[in-house]
Amino acid sequence: MARAEWQTRTSLNFSSDSWSVDDVPDQSGKVFLITGGNTGLGLATAKVLLARNARVYITSRDRERGQQALHMLRRISESIHVLELDLADLHSVRKAAHEFMRYALSSLLASPFTGDRHAYTD
Asked: What is the DSSP track for 81-99?
C-alpha cells in the first residue's frame, strides 16, 4: 500500500509539522518500561511521559549511568525508577523482570480503582 493511500485510509498524517510532544495526552495511571532509557530516544521519551504524569521505569546496562539519568529525571517527576538490565545476559533480564513485576504490580495493586464503576456489570 502506498504511503499516501495508507495515510488517507487511517486519517493520520505523520509529517513533522502536524505532531509534536505537546500532543501527547495525559498518561496518569499508566506504567511504561523503556529499555535504554538512560540516553538518546529512550531518555527523551521518558522525559515526555513523566511530564504527562506517567509512571516510568527505565533500564540501563550501566548502574552509574542509570543513576545519573534517574537524578536528572527526578527533576521532572518522582514517578521514575531505574532497573539495571543487560539484554545480552539472561540472568540480568530475569532479575530486571522480577524487579519490574514486583514494584510495578505492587504499586498498581495498592492504587485505588479510579475507573468508571459502571463500566463493569455482573
From this structure: EEEE--TT-HHHHHHHHHH
Q: Write the CA distances from 48 to 24, 61, 76, integer angstroms.
A: 8, 22, 9
> Strands 80-84, 55-60: parallel, antiparallel or unpaired by DSSP?
parallel
How many folded domains does the chain comprise? 1
CATH code at position 42: 3.40.50.720
- Has residue 113 been placed in a domain? no
Q: pTM value? A: 0.72
114 in any annotated domain: no
User: 56 lies in a domain?
Assistant: yes
* Alpha carbons 40 and 45: distance in angstroms, whole number: 9
Per-residue confidence of the chain (122 residues) as pLDDT tens digits? 555 554 444 555 556 567 788 899 999 989 999 999 999 999 999 999 999 999 999 999 999 999 999 999 999 999 999 999 999 999 999 999 999 998 877 665 555 545 544 443 33
Q: Is residue 38 part of a domain?
A: yes
13 phi, psi to nearest 5 deg: -130, 115
